[in-house]
TrEMBL record:
This is Aldo/keto reductase. The keyword Oxidoreductase applies. GO terms for molecular function: oxidoreductase activity. Keywords: Oxidoreductase.
């Protein structure tokens, strides 16, 4: 999962993704069928199809060129607004349909949309035989709204006639706050806005993650991501090193028992 605006400059992250996969392609070790590549278009007042009809297609083709895999599996609308700017979703939907119709996009996704907005996009795309497969939102033990407000269940039910609409959870470990690495006296540094709540509320959750992790021989991060999975969402944590890859793998292939899940709730 990447985006045209991730990184130091526009397209930086996408280019790095493309470089990584091309190394595997050159070595003959890349199985393209096992890669799900998702990227995003960000609507802004100065890059909106209402004013510039071809801007989404231009961005789409730019993403394909930078990622160098020949196509995008899930092309996502990064959000309904940017800097307080609220364009018409219908106009954005028309542009997403155009991207899908190029044949170089397998499905459309959205990010940071309310369920009512998801429903609007789903209905618009369905009229054009375009699949909406996902809504990517912040979801973790410290940001439970997608579950408590019924977003996950509603998205799953909305897509039952075709393909269930998945809820993809970004910041599932609250940008490191749920790993057990940090505490009140040693907090994460830098710009980590997601999952940034009062530490007095975070610490009891971390303590419980450690207790459960010791019982099931998993890291606190793996337990936190497994909770996300148990709630019906797909966690996509940031990975920077081998240890974090192991944490992600530890989250798979098992489920919290009901008592532990309830305690974390």
């Amino acid at each position: 999962d990447t985006a045209e605006h991730y990184g130091y400059t526009d397209g930086y992250s996408e280019k790095k993704v493309g470089d990584f996969f091309c190394e595997d392609q050159d070595a003959g070790s890349l199985d393209r069928s096992r890669v799900v590549l998702a990227t995003k278009y960000l609507p802004t007042p100065w890059r909106h199809p209402w004013r510039y009809p071809n801007i989404v297609l231009d961005s789409f083709h730019g993403s394909i060129q930078r990622t160098r895999l020949g196509g995008i599996d899930i092309y996502q609308l990064h959000g309904p607004s940017h800097a307080g700017y609220w364009p018409r979703l219908e106009t954005l939907c028309d542009s997403l349909v155009s991207a899908y119709k190029t044949g170089k996009c397998r499905a459309i996704g959205v990010c940071n949309l309310s369920f009512q907005q998801v429903k609007l996009v789903y209905t618009h795309l369905k009229r054009n035989d375009v699949p909406l497969v996902s809504n990517q939102v912040e979801f973790s033990l410290v940001r439970q709204d997608p579950w408590t407000e019924g977003m996950i269940e509603k998205c799953h039910k909305l897509g039952l006639t075709t393909t269930s609409i998945a809820v993809i959870a970004y910041s599932p470990i609250a940008l490191g706050r749920l790993t057990g690495k940090y505490d009140r006296s040693n907090r994460p540094r830098g710009n980590r806005n997601f999952g940034d709540i009062d530490w007095d509320k975070i610490q009891p959750i971390v303590d419980e993650l450690k207790r459960i992790g010791a019982k099931v021989n998993k890291s606190p991060a793996a337990v936190a991501m497994n909770w996300v999975i148990c709630k019906g969402a797909i966690p996509i944590p940031t990975v920077k090193n081998r240890e974090q890859v192991v944490d992600c793998l530890q989250a798979l292939g098992w489920r919290l028992d009901q008592d532990d899940e309830d305690r974390l709730d």
